[in-house]
Amino acid sequence: MHGRVKVKSTAQQEEEKRKGREKKLKVYLTVRDAIFSKRSNGELDEEALQFTQQLLCSNPDFATLWNYRREILLHLETVKEEDEIQKLYEAELFFIETCLKMNPKSYGSWHHRGWVSSRLPRPDWTRELSLCDRCLSLDDRNFHCWDYRRLVVKASGVPVDQELQFTDRLIGSNFSNYSSWHYRSTLLPLLHPEPGSEPASPCRKQNNTHTSPTASPQTHSHRVCEEQLLKEYELVQNAFFTDPNDQSAWFYYRWLLGRAEREELISCVYVSREGERVAVAFSKPVNALTEGLMLVLDGQQQQRVEWRSAHPRFRHSPVWLCELPPGSVSDINNEHNLTVHWMEKHTHRDCALYTGRPESWCRDSATDQELFRSELSVEKTSVLQSELQSCTQLLELEPQNKWCLLTIVLLMRALDPLGHEKETLAHFQTLKEVDPMRSSYYSDLCSKFMIENTILKMEYAEVRVFSLSDKNLSTLCHLDQLLLVTHINLSSNQLVRFPPQFSMLQCLEVLEADDNAIGNLEGLYHLPKLEEVSLKNNQISKLSDLEPLASCPRLTRLDLRGNPVTKTANIEAELAQLLPSVTDLLL
Amino acid sequence: MAADNLPSEFDVVIVGTLTESVIAAACSRVGQRVLHLDRNYYAGNWASFTLNGLLSWIEEYKAQQEKSPDDQTDVEQEWREKIEEGEEVLTLNSVDSTISNLEVFTYAEEPEEEEEVKATSVGSVLIDSLAAEAKENSSSSTEAQNSSGPDDTTPDKDDDEEHQHQEPENEQTPETQEEPENEPQPEPVPEVKKKITYAKLIKEGRRFNIDLVSKLLYSRGLLVDLLIKSNVSRYAEFKNLSRILTCRNGKIEQVPCSRADVFGSKQLSMVEKRMLMKFLTFCLDFEQHPEEFQFSQKPFWDYLRSRSLTENLQHFVFSSIAMVDQETLTEEGLRATQHFLRCLGRYGNTPFLFPLYGLGEIPQCFCMCAVFGGIYCLRHSVQCLVVDKESGKAVIDTHGQRISCSHLVVEDGYIRDEQRTRSVNISLVTVPPLDSSSPAVRMVELSSSSMTCMPGTLVHLTCSSVGSAREDLEPVISKLFYVPSSPGEEPAPCEEEQKPVTLWIMFFNMRDSSGLDPSCYTLPTNVHVCTGPDASLGNDYSITLQAESVFRQLLPDEEFCPPAPNPEDIIYDGDGTQTEGAAFQEAGDALGTSAAGEEEEEEPQENDQSEESSEPAASSESAAQ
């Protein structure tokens, strides 16, 4: 048709492109080889800068070239005047900007920019900050830029409140941004720290004194004063009411509701006269061998005691054991005073073993506040109560929302774990239905809460019997809290193993775990008092699975009915050999 | 091109503006010989005028009103001679009949001297109003922003976000009415604040680009898609609307429509936020949830009330997001909401784009496609159509030249009324939204950063007409603005000081023929009529759909507006030398970024262009300077 503009055909264009590419490739390779040969000749001149610049312009991820550039720049620093260096580095910044336009997420370019900024004799931080803001306005989740921005903020000392406003702005434009929320969580404790004189917990104060204000929030008390917290609750609620499926807001909410790490202390010292043994429980797993643990018995420092963790697999464990020198406490007519010092933390715990007593202990009871609220804060109950109300309101609108359900569960735990037990279980059921991909996670979490509740009930009843049967337990936890338990009943659950932590149950005498799916007894290891084990209808299939039991010296009764292992040929003889102490064997 | 020596044969002769320019571009792009003519000024009813241009347009309008139809008969005799035997003549309108009820009011002070005398008192009044604004700002930015006219003295603020748009309610019916209104503001001189005088308005007149039609582009609308697809967007710059307001119970409120708005909104309770987001999310893919709307035969309004939405939210959705009226059925309402939402986020937090320098830019952009061989001729129109039996075969232009063509595309305004078998009532404008019988008024406020006015604000109000433009719109104006009773009068200190002061108002009614069925014209089959601007806010119907459908009738087998080829791919006669790229610099592509290398191979300036064309709004910042 006349008048129509003639356009090259696709094939023609392709051919041209191909030729163009070939040509470029040739040039590229030539330059690259030239650069490498210059570098191996140790030439650190401006020509090399120019060559590398040409290649990096098109491929800013060529890390070797950035390294070479740094070598050259460092060399030039030694031979040039300061003004020249300033100019050189400024040109470098300008050049990096072009590279960032090419690939805004180039590791090499951002790293080099950080390096150049730190070398620049007279850095212009304002300019760098505005560069970051520009980049973040194009992609507010560019974590390279966030990283670099932190560097700039640190170097230029931007006031914290200004940074908080910056996060306000970013969250305002798009609240689905972990980086901004997280940044907030690092700024708030600096800007609105929780008043230090919190009478509720003297040890937390001690915790504060150990932290410098520059430490990251993970390591110091990352709590925020209540007034600010209330504002943050409102802000984050705006986010999750707007979009309850956005997890970043929920995670921030969890952080807000969270509380400082538990103080580090010795939570329990147990001594057994008969076993001449001491067990020490800590508030968190430690390595007693490096923490300066000292045992003083009747005023005498015990130099030669050897600390071992409850199970050899653990280098860090919340429970550590040691044997006392033979005869030191065995006379039942003597009273003994025992002190365990934790030198590193300047803390200790005493324990008196009175006349006539076969054992003794001294401990903090696992009251609900102390232990199982540790995931949520100890803010005023009224605050948590109103948070629970908000979430319940949201749940009415979004009955299927997993984040909301989970948060409600956590708030209920913090408020009244036993009182809300029934609702909690119902919510877990819903959670598993709406989020089947994570049903195992919810099962484990639910198990954890059920164990906590049972521990609380046990504490209130002041007994040493732990009974949690038929509760769909899928995992065992908080076993360090069961150090003193003598009888445990875990029947009719969904357990598959006794984890190594189970060996922390140093006082356990009777274990019932019928009707589970247990095939692994690893944790039944060196339980000095264990006498009866009932494992009916489990999945123990090999003789070797039973080997850990051989380390329990007092085991006399073992019920293995309904396990595949009972079908093994010659099982009785094998077991008699493996477990000579067992007199009452049921197969 | 000089009009005197036009070629006398074309494939398509096109008379008219916006829709027509798209058709012209599409036809010439595929090799048709196109003659594109337009009346005395560029862009017809789609025009953007400087203030001075607008004043001449008003003069012209008035002159036309006085001219009697008989004047034309003399001229007619001249071209009658050019008609061959067996041919008939259909006369086309040479004057625009679509505008009526034009009225102009000036409130800015007229004489220079008087300003001098009054300078002191003016200053004090302005200071009062500044204080008021500061207060206002803290409590509600919406209100303060709205009263930006005289109060807004910070130029930086102007630059970025003055752009505001408001729809107290909406209209749908076929008539449009417009009335631009200016309230420029004092110069930001710290001490002596000068009031804006009429003389100053005139002096600064070229800084205005006042649209006759107030429209916005839906950012995922067909027109935007067409601009991108055809690469025409490279000729214009766009700005994303900064916010959407509504007027409710006499208060101006921001409409929370995007996720970020809902999150940040202070007027919504937490629960309302959830309700609104839930409803909007549902609207996004409402087709997937037929169980949620049983009401498809009932009005959208009733449907909204059946949903769990508070009154507040119903209002937002109904009048500011869906922008429909009481009669709209549920499905259409949902579709409108969906369209609005889909447009969000493409270029920013509101769904609308506005072309910098006014809407008149759009037809101009398409006319740039004249590069493909079309001929564009301004101040040159067609007097009549020469008809041979049932099909037209030529036109005779206003210079008396006979031009033959196989197709004629003509804007509705050129068709003489008597050629119309049926006509929608040509009426106009607004009534205050308070009165239930009155149409909703749509208001678009433009700041100087839109490049359509001097520092200050230009406000367009549009509604379906009931009476004359003035009757319809004046109540709304007096509600939202301070209208001095005499030129230069200052607002009473206490009551009116927070309202922007009006300086100049123009009312007029414009005919909306978009509701007409093309078959209602008794015209030869190769004459295609395009309607003028319609009353809806977007441009989709009037431009894209119509242009494409006319194009399909003309050239059923050709592609509609294919992208323009890259200059390097065009083969010129004797083309042999290829320009070499700066190959050295780009050599890395081949090795380094294999995937990205493909696109990055273009010449640098080529890259720029393609980037721009895919993002019409991208460079608004630079243009706003």
UniProtKB/TrEMBL annotation, chain A:
Specify where the region named Disordered lies, as residue ranges. Answer: 195-221
Under Gene Ontology molecular function, one entry of this record is: Rab geranylgeranyltransferase activity
InterPro entries named in the record: Leu-rich_rpt, LRR_dom_sf, Prenyl_trans_a, RabGGT_asu_insert-dom_sf, RabGGT_asu_insert-domain
One of this protein's GO BP terms?
A: prenylation
Q: Which UniProt keywords apply?
A: Leucine-rich repeat, Phosphoprotein, Prenyltransferase, Repeat, Transferase
Task: Respond yes or no to whether keyword Acetylation is given for this record.
Answer: no
- One GO CC term on file: Rab-protein geranylgeranyltransferase complex
| Protein name listed in UniProt | Geranylgeranyl transferase type-2 subunit alpha
From TrEMBL, chain B:
Q: Where is the composition biased (Low complexity)?
A: 137-152, 615-625
For this record, an example GO cellular component is: nucleus
Any idea which UniProt keywords this protein has? Cytoplasm, GTPase activation
Taxonomic superkingdom: Eukaryota
Please give the residue ranges the record annotates as the region Disordered: 133-192, 565-625
Instruction: Tell me the compartments it is located in.
Output: Cytoplasm, Cytosol
Q: Which InterPro entries match?
A: FAD/NAD-bd_sf (IPR036188), GDP_dissociation_inhibitor (IPR018203), Rab_escort (IPR001738)
* Homology family: Belongs to the Rab GDI family.
Its function, per the record, reads: Substrate-binding subunit (component A) of the Rab geranylgeranyltransferase (GGTase) complex. Binds unprenylated Rab proteins and presents the substrate peptide to the catalytic component B. The component A is thought to be regenerated by transferring its prenylated Rab back to the donor membrane.
Q: What is this protein called?
A: Rab proteins geranylgeranyltransferase component A
Species, as recorded: Astyanax mexicanus (Blind cave fish)
